């Protein structure tokens, strides 16, 4: 099965992924939790937190669809007025405006762990007041043009898979769900470009391209649920970034609807006609407008793929090897390097590493023929080829990790991820600093901190951390404290506050420190020009 | 001789390149001019234009350095006041402020053909009122912070090699010449990055990097005179872009001085922390601030290089071949394809093409080992390998073409270049449309229109046109009319108004049409935030 065969995951609120996929923790994982002092809530000695309730307990997490029950707190928000609803219906048709609790609950927040914990606690304070489903760029533009007059803020929603904090506009607001913008508008085989609408979810976009023999090659871990518009708005980067690049490197054109009109960018792959404004819109996270379509570079579908595991003596040894590939090539399509702890946690069977002598696991993947020259570089750098077994294990499980978070939360574990990037020379100290900051901040519930590299560039790389520990009595506060410490460690060690998750609300303060107050003012000036009434995603980014 | 051995060209106003290099037109070229009806000014039947004057006539083009004579018209501008001069001296020291005519004349305009023609006509209307030479970022920042109070506009100047029109602030203005910012500040061998100050000219930067074993790999045709700051401000692209990328792709960090303070960007190669603001500053052409240094990706110096000529039956056949390399690889470092007319004009010896049977010439170059796989793609696409001869001829003459313009002007020819880029599917029609527009607009003096492709991407390519015809009585107006027609043809055929020359004043109207009024407003908002008094490069870009 390739990516284009995967179904779109219709996410349910408060629990990751396709609900038809039951994920159970392996026995080894349950054992490991005991070693971290993690106890299922309700068990003797477990905290009274919101860890999911005892087995069989009702948790207020998932609405089954529009009309399903939602927490009582949701009703506290005022209903939209008749004129507001009439305006929305006049643009998209009344059948495409919903204000039932189920729909609103299903469009609340994203999928950070604190988002999930607040779902579990029944917190509906940031539920939208209505969900609107436009079918075209013009409908999106008309909504944005009229919302100020109708005193409505707008939260764009395409995949809903953010993990960096949603927002809670203080006034009435609607969510604009882009799922009806789901067309492959154009495919130019000579230029190898495709025009994709923003509401296309990852698998749907790949499926449409596959029918024509092409692939986008963008496979973030959120692939099953995330969308083209979300990739663009948040500068996404996928697991095949070594071969296909980041999403912002794939975009050669885009169309943005703003409250003041439309901006269309991209007459050529590259230009010297002023600043590259595409890169000003990409990453603007809905603060400047709603991206309704993008023109992306596509490539022929590979006819073969190869995934392989490699063992290195240590993370440092592996780091040197992947840097060599990033700087002198030839790069594979997928290149990942786990550190010692992540390797140990992820490998149920340590014999994979050739006898349990420790070391770290790297994964390489090729879309297309196997490239022996890549393997030769790894061998020269001290790598040991473990063959296709670990590679295929990784490939087939690549979208599973986020599914594990919910049962881990059920078991009383706090589990969350964070990520950064830096130039190569800073990577070792950055990794140490972030790990120590997390361990220090969570010393009351000693954590495991796992780390891997999954995106490389000539001048640097990303670092992706996973944290697992026992939940305290107040796990939201527990995580926010740890996250605060990690953010400071990242800044002090010279990393960027996010490599591919985005800014959202979780990183806003750190983001402002990173770019400086004058750059923030410049962004605010752009925002004020395109969205003078502050209708769009208030509080996000800037 | 490699690029790092070349001397910096101390440009003289109104005539391209190192004045110690005497360039004479080959006899074949002089013959060709006759076929275009081009006559040396002063000859019987030649127009009375400003084509360089009769042999031996004094042309008011080149000041020999500070203190040299300059056209009388220059004295019409008011002198700076005592307080203005005192302010400038207080920041940089009085020895680094010059207001003699020679220095000011030497910092007037750039090197477009209309710039040169206006030099030849003695037009000094846009001469700066003083030239200031800061030595550090802090001095640049202090200048910018104080200029509004002292009623001075600022024109940044690093290499002075613009070919898209300078500006003429209506009030008093100074030129800030960055040549004293000429340091390699840092070189990080692990990350393969170098911090270069903005005033470093191309050969000086390469020389400093070569001493450490590295290269930037950025070799635009203006290489001898252009500077790091200019590359950044104008989104330059060099002749080795197929291998090294554009300059904006090399920049991973930058420091910008603005009237309101400093912006520093770039904690990592790539980030999801909001829009990529580096790409908002790159290409801003001095309208937002002065880039004082950049952090660039560097690579090890190649130990071998190979250049080769290839023949294709037609431009269309060559186009398919270079597109195949751009989309499926492996790309060489240099990839150029001339059309039939450029091939014929540039080849004094048509036997190079293997018997004078027509066809077009492509050049490929490798920094590093020869890649047979690249050659195999060209062969499969119908290419015929002409060997190293034509490749070496191109390599050794690669910076000579602009030198030929001045003697061509002397001979009464109008010669100028323009360029664009588009997606592959639009390239053939774009080429035809621009050529026809130029031929139509210059029908009174039938032109030769040469074209080549020298920058390729997966989704598209650049087109570079050279136009040669007889000068009319008013060659400035003659060219502006042709340029206007070409600009419209580019827009109508879906190209960008400039691939690597920049916007300047020549492309401002077309640029605004390309990005739209709302995007222009957004840029103006950024400008107003960073430069509220409009001190910087008034009239440029936006």
TrEMBL record, chains A, B:
Substrate binds at residue 405. FAD binds at residues 156-162, 285-291. The active site is at residue 464. Its cofactor is FAD. It comes from the Bacteria. One of its GO terms (molecular function) is oxidoreductase activity. Keywords: FAD, Flavoprotein, Oxidoreductase. The record marks 336 as: Important for enzyme activity. It holds the Pfam family FAD_binding_4. Residues 1-20, 45-77 are annotated as: Disordered. InterPro entries: Alkyl-DHAP_Synthase, FAD-bd_oxidored_4_C, FAD-bd_PCMH, FAD-bd_PCMH-like_sf, FAD-bd_PCMH_sub1, FAD-bd_PCMH_sub2, FAD-linked_Oxase-like_C, Oxid_FAD_bind_N. Coiled coil: none annotated. SUPFAM superfamilies: FAD-binding/transporter-associated domain-like, FAD-linked oxidases, C-terminal domain. GO terms for biological process: lipid biosynthetic process. Residues 124-301 form the FAD-binding PCMH-type domain. Residues 56-75 have a biased composition (Low complexity). Belongs to the FAD-binding oxidoreductase/transferase type 4 family. This is Alkyldihydroxyacetonephosphate synthase. It comes from Kribbella pratensis.
């Amino acid at each position: 099965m390739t990516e284009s065969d995967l179904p779109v995951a219709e996410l349910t609120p408060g629990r990751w992924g396709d609900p038809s996929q039951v994920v159970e923790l392996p026995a080894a994982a349950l054992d490991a939790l005991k070693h971290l002092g993690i106890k299922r809530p309700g068990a003797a000695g477990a905290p009274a937190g919101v860890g999911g309730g005892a087995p069989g307990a009702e948790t207020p997490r998932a609405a089954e669809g529009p009309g399903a029950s939602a927490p009582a707190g949701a009703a506290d928000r005022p209903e939209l007025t008749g004129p507001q609803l009439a305006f929305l219906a006049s643009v998209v048709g009344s059948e495409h405006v919903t204000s039932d609790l189920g729909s609103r609950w299903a469009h609340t927040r994203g999928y950070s762990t604190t988002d999930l914990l607040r779902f579990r606690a029944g917190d509906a304070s940031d539920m939208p007041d209505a969900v609107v489903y436009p079918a075209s760029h013009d409908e999106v533009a008309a909504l944005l043009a009229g919302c100020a007059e109708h005193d409505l803020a707008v939260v764009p929603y395409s995949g809903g898979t953010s993990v960096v904090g949603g927002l809670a506009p203080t006034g009435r607001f609607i969510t604009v769900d882009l799922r009806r913008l789901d067309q492959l508008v154009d495919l130019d085989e000579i230029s190898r470009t495709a025009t994709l609408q923003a509401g296309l979810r990852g698998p749907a976009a790949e499926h449409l391209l596959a029918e024509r023999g092409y692939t986008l090659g963008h496979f973030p871990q959120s692939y099953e649920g995330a969308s083209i518009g979300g990739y663009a708005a948040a500068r996404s980067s996928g697991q095949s970034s070594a071969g296909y690049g980041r999403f912002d490197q794939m975009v050669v054109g885009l169309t943005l609807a703003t409250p003041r009109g439309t901006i269309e960018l991209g007459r050529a792959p590259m230009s010297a006609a002023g600043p590259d404004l595409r890169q000003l819109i990409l990453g603007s996270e809905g603060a400047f407008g709603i991206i309704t379509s993008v023109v992306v570079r596509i490539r022929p579908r590979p006819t073969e793929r190869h995934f392989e595991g490699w063992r290195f003596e240590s993370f440092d040894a592996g780091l040197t090897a992947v840097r060599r590939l990033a700087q002198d090539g030839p790069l594979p399509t997928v290149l990942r390097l786990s550190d010692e702890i992540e390797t140990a946690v992820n490998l149920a069977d340590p014999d994979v590493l050739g006898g349990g002598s420790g070391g770290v696991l790297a994964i390489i993947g090729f879309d297309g023929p196997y490239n022996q020259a890549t393997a030769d570089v790894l061998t020269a750098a001290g790598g040991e080829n473990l063959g296709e077994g670990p590679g295929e294990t990784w490939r087939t499980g690549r979208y599973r990790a986020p599914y594990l978070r919910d049962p881990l939360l059920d078991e009383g574990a706090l589990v969350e991820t964070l990520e950064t990037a830096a130039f190569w020379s800073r990577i070792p100290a950055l990794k140490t600093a972030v790990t120590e900051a997390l361990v220090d901040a969570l010393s009351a519930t000693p954590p495991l901190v796992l780390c891997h590299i999954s995106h490389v560039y000539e001048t640097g790389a990303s670092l992706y951390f996973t944290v697992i520990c026992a939940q305290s009595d107040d796990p939201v506060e527990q995580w926010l404290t740890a996250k605060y410490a990690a953010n400071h460690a990242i800044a002090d060690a010279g990393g960027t506050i996010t490599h591919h998750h985005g800014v959202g609300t979780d990183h806003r303060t750190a983001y402002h420190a990173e770019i400086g107050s004058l750059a923030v003012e410049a962004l605010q000036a752009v925002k004020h020009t395109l969205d003078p009434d502050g209708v769009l995603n208030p509080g996000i980014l800037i």
